[in-house]
């Protein structure tokens, strides 16, 4: 079996060599068991010398394939490029920052041999700040109510995929990619195991609060139109409330005559309704924006340099 390791790299010059050594070691261990390995590294428009490191690795090790983007297109695009360039019967996607312990690959391969199409390594949140753990937990609670696929906390982009899963994921050509959800959407027999999360070896995490919020919103919006439904129901309930309130006012006016005071009621109603309408417009806008991006049909990434010849595959 040929196993492809797919790793997106963004400003990872500090750890890349060590990462490659670590996976090479695993490759050496798996070779006697009849498994070959190739390494597909995607340089996501790094601003440091990641590409130089990759070229050096490729010169030293024939099994290294690298793809370098013309600019930073984001991790999702890098993952997609990695999957497109991987030729293995199984593909392991993992981060290049050594937070995904390479030792687990052997275990994934064993589980793959037992017939699972997806082997998901699920990290425990040890070492994370408490606030991050709690918000993550809350987020997944909420999101799993909203989306059609089941998303699991900690089950991210460290997983082994069989060829048919990879092909299925590549068949999903949407521009807005939320891999976690796409993998879940594809399905096929899957199994999960937990591992202790390692602290980042060097470099720094590229996530900030804003990024996390955006990512969170993507998770909710990419998978169905339930937020639109929610907006609809909110509108209907407000309409009902307004109807009841109007009826009450009319009855009161009939019984006691018209009473002019009501400034507070009017202001509250006007501002609250304006707010609700803005939110609904926002929800509609989010979906329209997504349609806009999809319709443009732009490529997910542009390649600046690569040692893989299969350039025709790059046209989506
Ligand atoms: N990454 C990428 N493009 C980006 C940001 C990150 O390819 O724009 C890669 C990065 O090199 C790493 C992986 O995605 O291999 C995870 O990134 P990071 O460690 O910053 O995220 P975290 O581990 O904090 O979730
Ligand atoms: Mg990381």
Give a verbal description of the structure.
Residues 4-168 form the Glycosyltransferase 2-like domain. Keywords: Membrane, Transmembrane, Transmembrane helix. This is Glycosyltransferase family 2 protein. The protein is of the alpha/beta class and 316 residues long. It is 51% helix and 16% strand. The chain has an eight-stranded mixed sheet, sandwiched between helices. Strand 2 (36-43), helix 2 (50-60) and strand 3 (64-69) form a beta-alpha-beta unit. The protein is elongated and about 95 Å long. The site of uridine-5'-diphosphate has 16 residues, from strand 1 and helix 3.
Mean pLDDT: 84
Major β-sheet annotation:
8 strands, mixed
Structural class: alpha/beta
The number of distinct β-strands equals 8
Which term fits the overall shape? elongated
Strand content: 15-25%
The termini sit apart by 27 Å
Please work out how many helical segments DSSP would assign. 10
Q: What's the Cα radius of gyration?
A: 25 Å
The low-confidence runs, each spanning 5 or more residues with pLDDT under 50, are: none
Bound molecules: uridine-5'-diphosphate, magnesium ion
Strand order across the largest sheet: 7-5-6-4-1-2-3-8
Helix proportion of residues, in percent?
40-55%
Secondary-structure element order, N to C: EHEHEHEHEHEHHEHHHE
């Amino acid at each position: 079996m040929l196993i492809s390791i797919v790793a997106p790299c963004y400003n990872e010059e500090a750890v890349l060599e060590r990462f490659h050594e670590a996976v090479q070691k695993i490759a050496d261990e798996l070779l006697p068991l009849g498994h070959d390995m190739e390494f597909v590294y995607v340089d996501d428009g790094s601003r440091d010398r990641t590409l130089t490191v990759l070229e050096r690795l490729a010169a030293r090790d024939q099994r290294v394939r690298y793809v370098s983007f013309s600019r930073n297109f984001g991790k999702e695009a890098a993952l997609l490029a990695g999957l497109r360039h991987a030729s293995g019967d199984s593909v392991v996607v993992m981060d290049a920052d050594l937070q995904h312990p390479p030792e687990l690959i052997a275990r994934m391969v064993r589980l793959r041999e037992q017939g699972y199409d997806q082997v998901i390594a699920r990290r425990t949140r040890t070492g994370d700040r408490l606030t991050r753990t709690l918000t993550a937990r809350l987020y997944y609670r909420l999101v799993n109510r909203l989306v059609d696929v089941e998303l699991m906390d900690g089950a991210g982009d460290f997983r082994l995929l069989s060829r048919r899963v990879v092909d299925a994921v590549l068949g999903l050509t949407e521009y807005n990619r939320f891999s976690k959800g796409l993998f879940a959407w594809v399905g096929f027999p899957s199994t999960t195991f937990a591992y202790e999360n390692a602290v980042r070896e060097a470099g720094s995490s590229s996530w900030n609060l804003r990024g996390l919020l955006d990512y969170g919103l993507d998770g909710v919006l990419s998978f169905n139109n339930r937020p639109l439904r929610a907006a609809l129901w909110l509108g209907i309930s407000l309409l009902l409330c307004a109807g009841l309130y109007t009826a009450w006012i009319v009855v009161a006016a009939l019984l006691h005559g018209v009473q002019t005071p009501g400034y507070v009621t009017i202001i509250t109603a006007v501002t609250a309704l304006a707010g609700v309408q803005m939110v609904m417009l926002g929800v509609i806008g989010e979906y329209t924006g997504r349609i806009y991006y999809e319709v443009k049909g732009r490529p997910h990434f542009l390649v600046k340099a690569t040692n893989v010849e299969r350039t025709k595959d790059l046209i989506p």
